[in-house]
Specification:
Blueprint: E1 2-6, E2 11-16, E3 21-24, H1 35-48, E4 55-58, H2 63-75, E5 81-83, E6 94-96, E7 100-104, E8 107-114, E9 120-127, E10 130-136, H3 140-149, E11 158-161
Parallel strand pairs: 3-4, 4-5, 5-6, 10-11
Antiparallel strand pairs: 1-2, 2-3, 7-8, 8-9, 9-10
């Protein structure tokens, strides 16, 4: 099950398996300081009866996303955190996003380190013959780099991009 939460500037996307809840991005934008998590993510978790998020994947580290991640960890619990570009020292279970694959309940989660020195993180989710790419904040250069490096990762049924990856920040070929 996939729920894309409209949180303004971007999107926070919940991906649910039978036993786990993954969240791609908090949706927090400039000067929101975790408000998007409080306004959209936590109510969605409550509506689903979820008490924790097993994995949070942040496309990039920004102060707003850091505040959202900290709020989520404090309010609901967070088992793991992958961040494009890395994470400063903290008590959160954070790791720098790298190309990796994890399978849970027949669902394949593939993190993709994208951009210069892996400064961005995308998430590809595959269940059966269906796939979803959560591209995050990729600009045109990062999109082209991913297309060259992993053309197979671009064959998806659904693509979710943030505002930065819209017509203002993306390439028409994407």
């Amino acid at each position: 099950r996939v729920l894309v939460l409209d949180v303004g500037r971007g999107a926070a996307t919940l991906v649910l398996t039978h036993s786990e809840a993954w969240l791609f991005d908090t949706g927090d934008a400039w000067r929101t300081d975790g408000a998007r998590v409080r306004q959209a993510v936590i109510p969605a978790l409550d509506a689903l009866g979820l008490t924790r998020v097993d994995r949070l994947v942040l496309p990039r580290l920004t102060p707003e996303r850091a505040a959202g991640a900290a709020l989520l960890a404090g309010e609901r619990g967070l088992s793991g955190l992958d961040v494009g570009g890395g994470w400063p020292a903290s008590r959160l279970p954070a790791t720098r996003c790298v190309d990796a694959v994890v399978e849970r309940d027949g669902v394949r989660f593939e993190t993709l380190a994208v951009g210069v020195r892996g400064q961005a993180c995308s998430l590809r989710v595959t269940a059966g013959r269906r796939s979803l790419l959560l591209a995050g904040d990729l600009d045109a250069a990062a999109e082209h780099a991913l297309a060259r490096r992993r053309p197979d990762a671009l064959a998806n049924d659904v693509l979710v991009i943030s505002r930065e990856a819209s017509g203002a920040g993306s390439d028409a070929e994407w």
